[in-house]
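The instructor's notes for this session suggest beginning with a concrete chain rather than abstract definitions. Hand out the sequence below and ask the class to guess, before any prediction is shown, which regions might be ordered.
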Amino acid sequence: MASAALEIIGLTLCVFGTLLEMTACGLPTWKVTAFIEANIVVAQTIWDGLWMSCAVQSTGQMQCKMHDSMLALNQDLQAARALTVISSVMCVVGLLVVIAGAQCTNCIKTDGVKARVVNVGGVIYIISAIFMLVPLCWMANNIISDFYNPQVPASQKREIGAALYIGWAATAMLLIGGSVLCCSCPASGNSGYSVKYAPNKRSTPNGDYDKRNYV
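After discussion, reveal the predicted structure:
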């Protein structure tokens, strides 16, 4: 019963983490315009994402444009694209593996094998979280480095966007959920009760039963 509860908790965390990860992957707010010095009053705000860049006017109108060429992107964006897609695919694979080995399904009959399959699913989720964490930290490091670099013009400096925070939350949920799934263990086959049988009554040589059998 406790193992089934751990599977439900771990799977729930991983599913929510997967949804947040895919949301962060699609949002264009990985980098946002930094309002510093003379750039404090601007007519538009620039958002840079993995797949598109958006310009938000002061009137509220927003225009987005897809990145024309992947090779023209910076190395951090290229790596982030690849790693986030791989991480999302691994999350889907981990979901299928955990469902196949869950105690509430009948895909696998043996309890020991089902527990090992769930553990494998937890490991897949942990690896996917690491793949997601690498581009997030890389991107944040580049943003902070450029922000404090005096050679970078103020108009080109960016700040950490909401997509990075969503990605970090998704990574935390995937790590915790995967660790919980790794703690799943097969149900014990012992019922806890032992059956004891009384010894057979033996008769004495003269045909009578031994008096010790009646004590």
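Then share the key points. Residues 111-147 form the longest helix (37 residues). The beta strands are 31-33, 44-48, 52-57, 62-66, 158-160.
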